[in-house]
Amino acid sequence: MKRFIRGAGVVFFFAFFGLSALFVRYFVFPFIKTKHEDYDMLRKLWKFFVGILCKVKIINVKVDEIEKLKNIKNSIIVSTHPSYIDILLLISIIPNSTCFVAQKLANNLFFKDIVDLLFILDSNNIDEWLNKACEKLNNGLNIIIFPMGSRHDKNEHPKIRRGASLIAFKSQRNIVALNIETSYRFLSINQPIYDVGDKTVDYKIEYLDEINIKDFLAEYPDEVSFKTEVTRKISNILYKYK
After folding, report:
1. Which of 7-16, 30-39, 227-236 shows the highest mean pLDDT?
2. In contact, 21 and 109? CB cutoff 8 Å
3. Distances (CA, A) of 162 to 156, 176, 234
4. pLDDT digits (tens, 9 = 90+) for 176-219
5. How far apart are CA 89 and CA 203, in angstroms?
């Protein structure tokens, strides 16, 4: 019974989340004029949603060195990706942050307008998303990327894609690496949204390291070598390969 109640609660939460996105898009954002104020509103709203999940004991969130996360500025953020709500957690903590979103969200009734307004649409056109990412960084935002591309289980070491290193090469912004872990498999890949177990899932979010891009550019000035070495460095940090 407890498992059923928790599952129903998560389904209700996502429905509420979608309806709230519509409300905010049409009744709040049109009145926001200050630069980055819309991203601040997004962070506060998502912090509220995370608070609800914590209040009803669906999740518990522990953040190591939270001030470091709050003070990340104008950087490319890469992170492990165990669950569906990882981006919700990160944006609720780190100010002035955006991320890439899947093409299907651009056609979603609840989120399509917010996607156009605040996020970067993942596209097969490399120049298109790269220019958009650099534009966001030039405007002082952080960009959050899950460089493995999809959710993964705790003990998996997925292959890291080169998107983050390409953006770093073009923008010359530093990369900050974070780790997200869950105490058990929760809203993971190929897992139904209602299958959330019968106890509170503990999230641990920790700051790992910062990659100084100027150091890599000095040693690897050509794009191919730079992307190869920075991607390898990201993998080493996130998954502690030797």
Report:
1. 227-236
2. no
3. 18, 15, 10
4. 999 999 999 999 988 888 888 889 999 999 999 999 999 999 99
5. 9
For residue 181, report the phi and psi dihedrals to the nearest 5 degrees.
-130, 150
Condensed to tens digits (0 to 9), the pLDDT of residues 92-134 reads: 999 999 999 877 776 766 666 677 778 888 877 889 999 999 9
Rounded CA separation 137/6 (Å) = 39
Q: Which of 81, 131, 76, 124 lies closest to 103, judged by CA?
A: 124
Residue located via tokens 């917010």: 114
Residue 54, CA distances (Å) to 25, 141, 204 in order: 25, 27, 13
Per-residue pLDDT of 54-78, as tens digits, reads: 999 999 999 988 999 999 999 999 9
The encoded tokens of residue 179 equal 């780790």
What is the 8-class DSSP label of residue 158?
A: P
| 59 CB burial (10 A radius; 0-12, 13-18, 19+) | buried
Q: What sign results for the dihedral spanned by CA atoms 50, 56, 59, 62?
A: positive
Question: Domains plus CATH for the chain?
Answer: 2-239 (3.40.1130)
Q: Mean of the per-residue pLDDT values for the chain? A: 89
SS3 58: coil
Nearest to 78 by CA among 60, 65, 97, 59: 97
Q: Is the sign of the CA dihedral 231, 85, 96, 67 positive or negative?
A: negative
How many helices (H) and strands (E) in the chain? 9, 7
